[in-house]
Amino acid sequence: MQLKHIGVFYNQHKAQNQPLAQQAVDFLRAKHIKATMLTSLDHLEDIDLVISMGGDGTMLRCARECAPKQIPIFGINCGTLGFLAAAEKEELTAALDALLAGKYISHKRLLLQAVVKTSQNTKIFTAFNDVVLHSANLRTFYVNATFNGTKMPSYFGDGVIVSTPTGSTAYSLAAGGPIVEPNVEVIVITPICPHSLHQRPMVLPATGLLQLSPSFKNKEDGAIVSFDGQLNLPLEPGAVLELSRAPRAIELLTLPQRGFFDVLHKKLSWGKEEC
């Protein structure tokens, strides 16, 4: 990959990341690479790569904006977990050296496309981790579901999480869902606090169409659909949520030593031996 222009993005509401982002820009310019500090992802027309300076939330935001434009992302973790990043902030210089030397691995990760249909309009959203349909007022409700037009048993509880393989280690995992290797082409449905011993997480092929529709016992009840935990939309009774694989995948660049199982072990203590 030829890197002529690199954008270094940080969340301007987290000013503590600005000096590190500036350090990255200065380093790249010293290597004769055009580098631009970004606090917005609205104009990426001539950007070859986006370096995400922040936590996983910043990476999710970058993914939703960069995937349609086919711009890869290289993440430097400046947050708490940094599950999606290529390196930690303490490794900034070494990580950028490896990037410019081509010593990285490219991974394509699928995203979800969500079409929200109401009586007023139709809106389209994208999610990298998950789409969550949950109660607006802490009351249980039904979620009617079909997959490729075939009716599924309704979910009854606090809602459902529909995650990508990447998102399987986020909210879905906390709710009891399975860990899915990121290259597997599937989506995962995980019930949230189901009021049944028979409702369990389910793995479905990413090539299908999943339809969800909330149903309420009381008129004052309602639901909210959340995209990556960052965008939230209230749903009216009768609304339909159509979920499928997004047309474009996102390309993540990582370093060879930061494999999926290694990150699971270091970040989530997977396989850690008890003392």
Structural class: alpha+beta
Q: Using the coordinates shown, work out and report the CATH topology of the largest domain.
A: Tumour Suppressor Smad4
> What's the CATH architecture name of the largest domain?
Sandwich
Number of strands: 19
Kindly provide the radius of gyration, computed on alpha-carbon positions and rounded to a whole number of angstroms: 20 Å
Number of helices: 5
Can you tell me the CATH class of the largest domain? Answer: Mainly Beta
Along the chain, the helix and strand elements come as: EHEEHEEHEEEEEEEHEEEEEEEH
Count of folded domains: 2
Arithmetic mean of pLDDT? 93
Strand content: 35-45%
General form: elongated
**How is the biggest beta sheet arranged?**
7 strands, mixed
Regions with little confidence, pLDDT below 50 for 5+ residues: none
Question: CATH homologous superfamily of the largest domain - what is it?
Answer: Probable inorganic polyphosphate/atp-NAD kinase, domain 2
Specify the helix fraction band.
10-25%
Distance between the termini: 45 Å
Descriptive overview:
The protein is α+β, with helices and mostly antiparallel strands and 275 residues long. The protein folds into two domains: 5-109 and 249-268, Probable inorganic polyphosphate/atp-NAD kinase, domain 1 (Rossmann fold, 3-Layer(aba) Sandwich); 112-245, Sandwich (Tumour Suppressor Smad4), CATH 2.60.200.30. Helix content is 17%, strand content 38%. Strands 1, 2, 3, 4, 5, 6 and 19 form a seven-stranded mixed beta sheet that branches. A six-stranded antiparallel beta sheet has the order 8-7-18-15-10-11. The protein has a six-stranded antiparallel beta sheet with strand order 14-13-12-9-16-17, with no helix packed on it. The longest helix is centred in the first third of the chain and has 13 residues, at 18-30. 39% of the residues are buried. The mean pLDDT is 93.
